[in-house]
Each structure stands twice: as structure tokens, then as C-alpha cells.
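pasting input
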Amino acid sequence: MSRPRINLEATLFCGQSFAWTKIGAVYQAALRGRLVSFTQESLPSLLAKDGGVCEYFDCSFDYEGAEQHLASLDPYLARAIASFSGLRILCQDPWETTVSFILSQNNHITRIRSLYRRLSEAYGTPVGEGVYTFPRPEELDGVTEDQLRGLGVGFRAPYIIDAVAKSPILDAVHDLDDEGALSALMQIAGVGPKVGSCILLFAYQRRRIFPRDVWVKRIMGEHYRHHTCAFFAPHEGLAQQYLFHAYRSEHGRKG
DNA sequence: GGCCAGGAGGCCT
DNA sequence: AGGCCTCATGGC
């Protein structure tokens, strides 16, 4: 069986993960506590021998089938998929994803990335030159609001502290249905419907979840006025990623 | 229910 | 070089 090509550029920099850097042709991040690096060309051989990386890139899901189905629904989505084919929904760590999307509110991607990096450098564990793991809740235990504000997270500092305290919720989410899971996540300060939806889609493989940020609301208003997100069923989450990424690329947004 | 603060770095002109 | 944008959440 041939392995479908993963579009790394779109997948790693579309705003679902803030962990990755690209130096030359090399993509690099701390993944599950260790340094992982590859190029577009070397990724297939890494996937073949590293189950962890394979799982991270959601390799057991039939993306070709999902893309075909979505592309058959309407020409606008078909064009987005044609432009960025191989965009995947990553299987990310719930804790990292929760803090990342708390940081994301009222913020642009470039700045989220720098805050993510600063938190990692300040409280994470080094795994390679200049690369650190994202700090676990235990590593952030006892951190103060002032310390976090010192890193530039601003009004999000108390949210992060609350997330540390309530991090056990993240284990319970695995056993809840989508609705119950969203309610549970929203018990964390700074987690509302949008942030909670992103956590469910990017860390818990809830493929039916359709996060609505301002961009997606614009897209739905401009192109899907007579539809709800159920139009994209059962691949709402993947459709959202293609629409979001294509629309923003088209409108020249980088951050 | 609606409006506005909060925060600072990257983006655009 | 400097002003503007970000755009979810919580609190009033």
C-alpha cells in the first residue's frame, strides 16, 4: 500500500501546532519528550519505523478517502483541498494543546509560537540544542502569575495557572462524548467553546468537531450561507482545516 | 445580552 | 519607523 503524501508545510504551520521550527529543509520539534527532526523527503522512512511519529501524523486514518468525499461536496472546498492536499489533523498531546489554545486567544500564530517557545525554554526540559519539551503540568506547579506575565502571556496568565490546577480534567475527557467533553474542558478558565473545540479536534481526534473562529465564520457567511457544518459530515473537522487554511492563504495572512 | 479590556510583538504601510 | 492588527474569553 502506498503512503499518501503528507503536506508538512500546511500541516505543521496552519495553526494547529505551535511546536515546530523549520531550519532550511529540516522540520524539528520535541515530540513525546524527545527531539524529532525530518525533511519532507525523509519523513516516509521515519514513519515506517517510528510508531509514535506515525500516530502523531494520524496515519491510521483514511485521508485520501476523506479528501475525495469532501471534494465531491462542492467546488469551493474542492479547490481548497486541491491546493493543500495532504493536510492532516495531528494527534497532539492534550495538555500542550490546551495551553497552546489558551495562548491563542486574541493572538496571531507567530506570537503564539513565540509564547509557546518561551514557556518551553523557561520550564520545559532540553532535548537538543535550543529545543525544549513543552512543560508538563508538574513542571508548572507553583509558577506564579507574575512569572508567566514576565514571559509576555499577559491576561492569559491566570488561565494557565487554572489549567495546571485542573489538568486532571484532560484525562477524564477521553471517556466522554463530544458534548460532555466540551463541557468538561470549559471548566478550565480561559477555555470557551472555540478553544475547547480546538482541543477536541487537535488532541482527541474528535473529527466531527468544527471549531468556529472569526475566519471560519466569515467563510460560512460568504460561501455556505445555506448550510450548517453538518454539510461536511462526517469530516467536519478536516473540512474546517482546509477552509481555514485556504482562506487565510488566499487573503495573505501569515500570522 | 452587549460591550469592552487586556497585551505586546509581528505585520503592513 | 510607527501605527495597527490580533479576535476568544470573562467580567461588568
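fyi The radius of gyration of chain A is 18 Å.
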